[in-house]
Amino acid sequence: MADFVAVGNAGDVPNGTMKEFNVSGVNVLVARVGDKLYATQGRCAHMGGVLANGKLDGTVVTCPRHSSQFDVKDGHVVRWLSGKGVSYTLAKMVKPPTGLKVYEVKAADGKIQVKIP
């Protein structure tokens, strides 16, 4: 059974921002929206883009590589890639929409703590 691992200080991720941490060899994106923390896999499920380099709008993170969007609350796909036409349709067939893994996260004793199963 996995334990929570301290990854940084609570102040490392201010409201409306996100940051990638390495937790037991896993790249984890931690985002803060209001007083709530969320943790997902740190790399885009499409082509492995570094989500921390993307944009956070509310709870939706946009991958900087191909503009796929995911909700950090539960990892579901908001938009798979961006674009239209044949190349977009083919890209979706080759790599179908896949959500992000989500992890338990909490702030305790001034530290951000993440649990990786």
- What structural class do the secondary elements suggest? mainly beta
End-to-end gap = 7 Å
Shape: elongated
Give the CATH superfamily. Rieske [2Fe-2S] iron-sulphur domain
What fold name goes in the CATH topology slot?
A: Rieske Iron-sulfur Protein
In which range does the helix fraction lie?
Answer: under 10%
Helix-strand string: EEEEEEEEHEE
Short description:
The protein has 117 residues and is mainly beta. It is built from one helix and ten strands. The strands form two sheets. Strands 1-10-9-4-3-2 form a six-stranded antiparallel sheet, with no helix packed on it. Strands 5-6-7-8 form a four-stranded antiparallel sheet, with no helix packed on it.
What characteristics describe this protein?
117 residues, mainly beta, four-stranded antiparallel β-sheet, 1 helix, Rieske Iron-sulfur Protein, single chain, elongated, 44% strand
Structural write-up:
The strands form 2 sheets. The chain has a 6-stranded antiparallel beta sheet with strand order 1-10-9-4-3-2, with no helix packed on it. The chain has one helix spanning 85-94, and strands spanning 4-9, 17-23, 26-33, 36-41, 55-57, 60-62, 69-71, 77-79, 102-108, 111-115. Strand 3 (26-33) and strand 4 (36-41) form a beta hairpin. The protein is built from 1 helix and 10 strands; from the N terminus they run ββββββββαββ. The chain has a single domain (4-115), classed as Rieske [2Fe-2S] iron-sulphur domain (Rieske Iron-sulfur Protein, 3-layer Sandwich), CATH 2.102.10. It starts with a strand and ends with a strand.
